[in-house]
């Protein structure tokens, strides 16, 4: 399959794919299905050489293989991370064994199920506020811009202890780091995420609070506090991992319900179906593709991977593999057996999955309670993100029709 996009030429996704091309996320399901049949490990010379396996078996094997792959780089860009630090830049996602387990253990308590349950009321209140203030023009609202994107930003800002009003700033960081990796931006030092977080960390050092930044500044590992670099790296991770991902999952779920009225009406009529439906929406529209760097020369599905090559881990493609899921390309809203890989596989499995599920459930419950009938706005354009996190960035919905 080749696809033409507005800004770049026709692409053969098997040999010259570019996951940052807008046509990739827009056509992702068809591209993966095509590759699965004719070239299950695709390659591109871009970014210094990158592989794209699309079968569940390959994605799972790589995610579990910490000998042949390192997590020191998880976002593909033309610039590889500099010489390995044990923790990487954003622990634990950039850490390898054996230090990964320690960096991960530190973060488990604030993301435990009981602690996350405590955030339900805050999440529900902010979803209700957003619904009450939706800027509807002629019956149309952009649900990505005015609803889904605000929910994770506000929740993680409250958890970390940074101002909610800095949401626009966080989205700029995400735009640069996740949506346009490796691109040069003309930035003053004070425009960087590192500078921003150093300011917030200094405020917390001067005046400790009951929040995640103070937790990371005080928690001990092997009897010692974390280095400033480690603590800041984990804050970077929580800020980036928590926002774009959940924003995308909520937006894709709304996109599905806007385009599948039977599923939407069934969810409204049978709200008890919500937890099962959420797992299916996460399977079918999993937003997160991570990456690894090959640590050694080796073979992957018969392909010669060289040390230093990038390898994308498209968990969303694994979730649509017919070898593993019946009716893999369809949303079966009451799918009973659903061991999906949306939150990853292996040692880096998502630490924020309880929070992500809470935000997704509450966001959909509150949307459906206020707006049970909606569809894509006629003539409106849905715009999908670019890069490794897939979700709608513009989602014009006609509501109440
Ligand atoms: C629907 C929303 C989300 C999805 C689909 C998702 C998906 C993932 C995936 C696939 C990984 C594995 C990465 C890898 O193998 O390299 C991961 C890791 C991680 N996620 Fe999430 N995530 C979501 C939301 C969140 C939230 C809300 C947080 C916290 C605020 C979070 C925190 C993390 C952390 C800390 C890791 C690293 C774990 C480790 O390296 O041990 N995620 N996530």
Summarize the structure.
This protein has 401 residues and is α+β, with helices and mostly antiparallel strands. It has one domain: Cytochrome P450 (Cytochrome p450, Orthogonal Bundle), CATH 1.10.630.
Report what the structure shows.
There is one protein chain. With 401 residues, the protein is an alpha+beta fold. The chain has a single domain, classed as Cytochrome P450 (Cytochrome p450, Orthogonal Bundle). Helix content is 45%, strand content 12%. The chain is built from 17 helices and 16 strands. The chain has helices at residues 13-16, 22-26, 28-38, 56-64, 99-107, 113-117, 120-132, 143-148, 150-160, 167-179, 193-206, 212-218, 228-259, 261-269, 274-284, 315-318, 353-370; strands at 2-3, 11-12, 41-44, 50-53, 69-70, 140-142, 220-221, 224-225, 289-294, 298-300, 303-305, 310-314, 374-376, 383-384, 392-394, 396-399. A hairpin with a 7-residue loop joins strand 14 (383-384) and strand 15 (392-394). The longest helix has 32 residues, at 228-259. The mean pLDDT is 93. Bound molecules: protoporphyrin IX containing FE (HEM). The site of protoporphyrin IX containing FE has 29 residues, from helix 5, helix 13 and helix 17.
Strand order of the largest sheet: 3-4-12-9-5
Q: How many H/I helical runs?
A: 17
Estimated radius of gyration: 21 Å
Uncertain spans: none
Q: What does the largest sheet look like? A: 5 strands, mixed
**The number of domains:** 1
Structural class: alpha+beta
Q: State the distance separating the first and last CA atoms.
A: 37 Å
Mean pLDDT: 93
CATH architecture, please?
A: Orthogonal Bundle
- What's the CATH H-level superfamily name? Cytochrome P450
Helical proportion?
A: 40-55%
CATH class: Mainly Alpha
What is the global morphology? globular
CATH topology: Cytochrome p450
Number of strands: 16
Percent of residues in β-strands:
5-15%
Give every kind of bound small molecule, once each.
protoporphyrin IX containing FE
């Amino acid at each position: 399959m080749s696809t033409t996009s507005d800004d770049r030429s026709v692409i053969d996704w098997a040999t010259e794919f570019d996951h940052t091309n807008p046509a990739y996320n827009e056509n992702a399901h068809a591209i993966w299905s095509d590759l699965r049949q004719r070239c299950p490990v695709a390659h591109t010379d871009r970014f210094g050489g990158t592989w794209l396996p699309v079968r569940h078996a390959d994605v799972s094997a790589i995610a579990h293989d910490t000998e042949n792959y390192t997590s020191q780089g998880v976002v593909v860009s033309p610039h590889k991370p500099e010489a390995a630090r044990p923790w990487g830049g954003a622990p634990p996602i950039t850490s390898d064994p054996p230090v990964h387990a320690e960096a991960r253990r530190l973060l488990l308590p604030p993301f435990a199920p009981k602690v996350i349950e405590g955030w339900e009321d805050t999440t529900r209140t902010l979803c209700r506020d957003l619904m009450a203030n939706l800027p509807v023009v002629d019956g149309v609202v952009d649900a990505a811009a005015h609803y889904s994107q605000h929910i994770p930003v506000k929740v993680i800002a409250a958890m970390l202890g940074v101002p909610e009003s800095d949401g626009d700033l966080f989205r700029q960081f995400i735009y640069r780091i996740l949506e346009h990796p490796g691109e040069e931006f003309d930035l003053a030092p004070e425009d960087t995420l590192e500078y921003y977080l150093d300011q917030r960390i200094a405020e917390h050092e001067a005046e400790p609070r009951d929040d995640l930044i103070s937790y990371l500044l005080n928690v001990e590992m092997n009897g010692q506090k974390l280095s400033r670099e480690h603590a800041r790296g984990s804050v970077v991770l929580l800020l980036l991992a928590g926002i774009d991902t959940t924003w995308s999952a909520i937006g894709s779920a709304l996109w599905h319900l806007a385009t599948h009225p039977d599923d939407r009406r069934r969810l409204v009529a049978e709200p008890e179906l919500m937890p099962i439906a959420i797992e299916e929406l996460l399977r079918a529209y999993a937003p997160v593709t991570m990456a690894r760097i090959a640590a050694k020369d080796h073979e992957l599905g018969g392909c010669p991977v060289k040390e230093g090559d990038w390898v994308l881990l498209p968990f969303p493609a694994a979730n649509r593999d017919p070898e593993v899921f019946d009716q893999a390309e369809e949303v079966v809203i009451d799918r009973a057996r659903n061991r999906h890989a949306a939150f990853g596989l292996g040692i880096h499995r998502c630490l924020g999955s309880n929070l992500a599920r809470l935000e997704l459930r509450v966001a959909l419950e509150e949307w459906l309670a206020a707006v049970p009938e909606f569809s894509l706005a006629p003539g409106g354009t849905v715009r999908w993100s670019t890069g490794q996190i897939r979700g709608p960035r513009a989602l014009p919905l006609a509501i109440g029709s």
